[in-house]
Every structure is written in C-alpha cells, then in structure tokens.
Amino acid sequence: MSTSTILHARPHGPSGHRAGIGALVLVLTVAAACQVGEAEGPPTNSSAVGPETGELQAFTGARIFDGTGSPWIEDGVLLVEDGIVRATGPAQEVDVPPEAQVIDLEGRWLIPGLVNAHGHSGGDREAVLQQLETYGHYGVTTVVSLGGDTDDGVQVRDEQWSPGLDRARLFVAGPVINPGSPEEAREDVAALAAMDVDWVKFRVDDFLGQAEKMAPEVYETIIHEARERNLPVAVHIYQLEDAKGVVEAGADVVAHSVRDGPVDQELIDLLVDREVCYTPTLMREVSTFVYAERPEFFDDPFFLERADPEVIADLEDPETQAEYRESSGAQFWREALPVAEENMVRLHDAGVPVAMGTDTGPYGRFQGYFEHLELERMVNAGMTPVDVLLSTTGQAAACMGLGGIVGTLEPGAWADFLVLDGDPTQDILNTRELHGVWIAGNQVR
Ligand SMILES: [Zn+2]
User: Which residue in 13, 11, 400 sits closest to 226, CA to CA?
Assistant: First the structure.
C-alpha cells in the first residue's frame, strides 16, 4: 500500500478521548510554563541537556523522517521550543532564529521516538519510573501500557507534560478487567473511568483450555459502556472468530495476532471498514520459547545496557531452560509465530493499520530492547523498513489516539526523537545505532 494512506484516523473512534488528551497537553504545558524551577517529578538526568522555558533549540544537518509517511527531508532542521516541535523542514525553508541553541547533527538520521502500542508497566511509583527510564534509554519514548497499571501509573502519566521530561511517556489501561456478567462489566468500566485510564483492556481467550472464555454479551457490554465514556478499547484475542466478534462489537484495537490459522477476507473487511488497528506482538510469542536455550541476544552489548543480571542468570540456568523445553505452551506458541507473521503481512498488505506492539513488561520480555527485536522481526516477516518505521511512529500514535501529540515531528507535537548513526529505512537494525534520544527536547541518552 502507499504510505500516503497509511495514517488512518478512526472516524468511529474515541474522538472525544483524543480531544481530551490534546486539551490536557495544552493545559498542562501552560501550567508547566508557569512553574519553571519548581520540582517536576523525579530529578532529571544530570548529564541531560534540556530546554528552559522559552528556549529554542535547532537540530540541524540531519536527514529527517517525520513519521507522517513523507519522504526523508535532506539537510533538515527541527526547531523545538519548550520541548515542542515548532517547525520541521529543509534548511532553506526553516528559519533558525539567532537566539536558538544549534545542535549540529550532520551526517545522521533523525526519526520520531518509537511508540509501543502494547507494552506494560506496573508496580509502585519507583518501579514505573525505572521502567519508563529503561524504555526511554532504548528510544521507546511512548508506551501504551495495556494492563497492570495502578494509581501510581496514572499519576506518573499526569506528570509527564513538561519540557525536559526524562523518561518515556506512559498511557495506561489500569487493571485488565474480567467481568463475569454484563452487570459486573458495567461496574468494572465505571471503576476504570473513575481511575482516569486512557484505555480499557480485556481478554477473550480460553488460554488453551485453562479458563472460561468471556461471553459475547459481557464484552459487548464492556465496549458499549466504554464508548459511552469515550474510552477506547483494546482486546486480547488469540482466535480468528473472537477477533471478528470484538471488532463487530466496536473494539478499537486488536491487541495481539490472530494465531489459530490464517486471517480471512471477512476479518480484513471488518478491520478495514472500521479502521481498527492491529498489534502483532510477535516478541510475545518469541518470549514463550526462546529461553529453552541461551538466546544469542544475551551477548548483545545493547541488550546488556539495561537487562537485569539476575533475570539473565535465571533464564540461562539449565533448570529454567529445561522447563521451557518441556513446556507444552512453548511448543504451541513456537508454531503459532509463523502464523502470526503471515497474518500481519496479509493484513498490512490489505490496508489494515498495523501498530508496533511487543507485550513487553512481563518476566523475560525486556522493555526497550524487545521493541528493536520486534521491528527486525516485522521486516524479516515481509513488511518494508519504511512501513515498519511508520508502524512504530505516526501509525502507532494514530492508532492509540495520540496523533499530533507524539509519533510524528509535526508542529505542535512533543519533540520526542531519536538521532541515529545509520539509515533505518535501509537497514532496520539501525534503530539500535542510537547517537542520542531526546524526549520533550531533553537528551536522555
Ligand atoms: Zn499485554
């Protein structure tokens, strides 16, 4: 498909919700501008170069991929004021005011920060902040956490609207709900709304016969109640028929791959007609079996920058490896992975908006690093590097109701971006060649 049509908005989608986020950004930006010098969240990285209010930064000389589907801008200028993009364009078209701090990036490639449409963060405030620091270190500058979030996560999200932010941005779904009846569904959605979540998340899956699958009358009620409150809905599915059911009921995002067989034209038509996004989470499958032996990436210095040595030691313990080898689930998901990859490519080719997601956060799914493995896997499965980059920048943002806020370098968006030492549209592995990561104009790596 042409990249010019790739950034779908959802006409039926949670427009009120998206407007809400936009308004929140504006209000909080103004509020932050009035409080310069006051403590704002955790201490910033002391080596970071961040903007003061009113400060202009001009990033010059790089090739710029703005995340909208437009071609690379040669000799680009990214002009940032108070952590927000003011202009992006070729040097001959963007005036750099004399007072701007100029950061020369000649010979490098500049792209929007990566958006993970399906990750997880959890635990208390300190844990959430540490996870967001890790995501940000790896260039994943926005994470939509689809479940497991507490009030601490909500609070961290509310504190992220200021220049000089030193961690990835977070959006939250609160706890994954699992009501047993329409009545409970109404109560659960009301509780999520009271918690002020960004997303509603539930699962329609019998977990290989280990659980009872949620009944359609229950999930139809969840979706109805969520839409009444302008809350978008992401649904964990595994089977084709359940994907159709939840999309027909009005879900906004299919939060995993269809893995019980090939997708069919009926699902394609449903997703395209309703502009529902699809999140493959291929690394979720990989994580179920890859530790049966010592994975190659355990020797990757980029992985080792933030991976917990205790977790690595556990995962390379022969006893742990034996458990993975003997697990029936591991074998099952290993065989489901190529099905997921073929379905992703088929849906993408048919015009379904695909948003990069990894399901990172649970044990053995390494936040920040696995996103780069996901991008590599998406390209190896058959998507072009350009389309994969869009799926984790402008497309992911549009899918998650964050268009114009993150994911692109359009004027008005937050200046969350990566500077790379290689062209990621020539080789997707170049997303790992991180010269630097900036969030809201603040260098965090
Ligand atoms: Zn998940």
Answer: 13
Q: Is residue 68 part of a domain?
A: no
Question: Which protein residues have their CB within 5 A of the ion that is ligand 1?
Answer: 359
pTM for this prediction: 0.90
Per residue in 368-427, pLDDT (tens digit) is 999 999 999 999 999 999 999 999 999 999 999 999 999 999 999 999 999 999 999 999
- Please report, for residues 150, 367, 373, the alpha-carbon distance to residue 283 in angstroms, rounded to integers and kept in the order given: 25, 11, 7
Domain membership flag for residue 169: yes
The answer to whether residue 47 is domain-embedded is no
Cα angle 73-74-75, degrees, rounded to a multiple of 5: 115
How remote is the CA of residue 281 from the centroid of ligand 1, in Å? Answer: 8
Output the CA 103–ligand 1 centroid distance in Å: 38
| Ligand 1 centroid – CA 288 distance (Å) | 13
CA angle 331/216/172 to nearest 5° reads 70
Residue 155, domain CATH: 3.20.20.140
Tokens of 349: 């080719």
340 CA distance to ligand 1 middle (Å)? 15
- Calculate how far, in angstroms, residue 144's C-alpha sits from the geometric centre of ligand 1: 10
CA 33-135-320 angle, 5° bins = 155
Cα–chain center distance at 242: 23
Write out pLDDT tens, residues 18-69.
333 433 333 333 333 333 233 333 333 333 445 556 799 999 999 999 999 9
Tokens representing 356 are 């990069």
Overall domain count for the chain: 1
